[in-house]
Amino acid sequence: MKMVAPWMRFYSNSCCLCCHVRTGTILLGVWYLIINAVVLLMLLSALADPDQYHFSSSELGGDLEFMDDANVCIAMAISLLMILICAMATYGAYKQHAAWIIPFFCYQIFDFALSTLVAVTVLVYPNSIQEYIRQLPANFPYRDDIMSVNPTCLVLIILLFISIILTFKGYLISCVWNCYRYINGRNSSDVLVYVTSNDTTVLLPPYDDATVNGAAKEPPPPYVSA
Length: 226
Prior knowledge:
Elements: E1 2-4, H1 21-48, H2 57-60, H3 69-95, H4 102-124, H5 127-134, H6 143-147, H7 151-186, E2 193-195, E3 201-203, H8 207-216
Antiparallel strand pairs: 1-2, 2-3
Helix pairs in contact: 1-3, 1-7, 3-4, 4-7
């Protein structure tokens, strides 16, 4: 008979490169943490030296301002919030605190929903891609090459690219969710399931309950020789 815990029966505890879901979640949290830290440093640099990221109206193709103080402050607040969420997820996976992973998991769901909304928009309004490309500045890299592509092929290429991104994001969501279930199961009661060869299961009670029930039974009568 093979003894397995119940939280290991209905999902996988391994992710990409055959590492554990805890390790994968820690690496994912550290990766997001580094990215948001770099973005925060860039925003601080833009706030300290606005001329470094200043673009004229002719470069933008319209009367738009690229980075004003309000947009920089909002982006900095979002970056700080993301750093906090990623740090919580990394700490929760490392110290096996399942509740600390929930904010990062909610962010992943929100990001996946936004990406799905973009894919639906491209599918329902395919002409919006051409309109968006036309609004780009004339000196935008590969603008004319993109405009020369067949609109149908361009939509299919963008949908394929978005589908690959959604698949990858869904895999990362499953990795974080499995890590949450694994940690949550490890922190719960240590009830074990014995799996026999004929696929029948026997659920064993916790050790404390078994010892209490066993102690409550009356001992057998003494042996009397004939």
